[in-house]
Design a protein that fits this description.
alpha/beta, about 270 residues, 11 strands, Rossmann fold, Phosphatase_SCO2771, Phosphatase, disordered N terminus, two-stranded antiparallel sheet
Length: about 270
Amino acid sequence: MPMDSAPTAPSRQELVEHLIRTRIAGDVATSRENNLDHYRELAEGNRHFWLGLELGDRWQDPADVLKVMVERCGVVADPGHRRGQDTIDPELTVDALDRMAAVLQKAAENSSGVLVATGHPAGLFAVHRVLAEALRAAGCTVIEPAEHLYADGGEIRHMTGVAMLHRGGGLMHTHSPEPMRKILDALERDGRPLPDVVVADHGWAGYAGSQGIDTVGFADCNDPALFIGEAESTVLVSVPLDDNVSPHHYAPMTAYLLAAAGLDGRS
């Protein structure tokens, strides 16, 4: 189903079935070994896995990280499960989409300034593009970063209202918080207002949340920081999903989110 087809929003049960069928949730591609490695790295203080959040010494036990991921993402709860398949609970995905929809609806009602960004241009750009267009159509100001901003050896660019990192002729997959840091610093330097709301993923979302901006985002089961951010109320919403399936598979999910937020033009 191409993203451009603007599919009719599925029911909750239809969406759950779609998430499982496309492995956006349910039995996902990310392995248990990879998940546990990332939980351990975060607990050991590897800031690459903090995604721009400041976690201090509050999450030094990987078991505590696993507990959060069970509650908010739906990974396998058994700490003895060390290898093989891991999971995302599709019901938790839809619950989080509903929470995100409430934030987006409020942003539209308030004609908020919104910044949309992704570190997953090969996957989640398809979602972010549609959200940016819908928010703009609803009266929000979609903030575009200044020209000639650079981070991590690349240039920050925007396409159809979505900020991404460009390097070496391509758009980059990045977990880094530095692009968001550069955007927010430049807005302050130029006397432009900071966003009221950020819609993002990875370090783009984590850093925005750490700066006190209302932030909603998407995160995979091997990226625990944003779920911890939500548990600590630094991030408003973190939607659990496989963040790198074929882009067109996200179309029904995006349609559901727009309808729940009243941004689908049908309300």
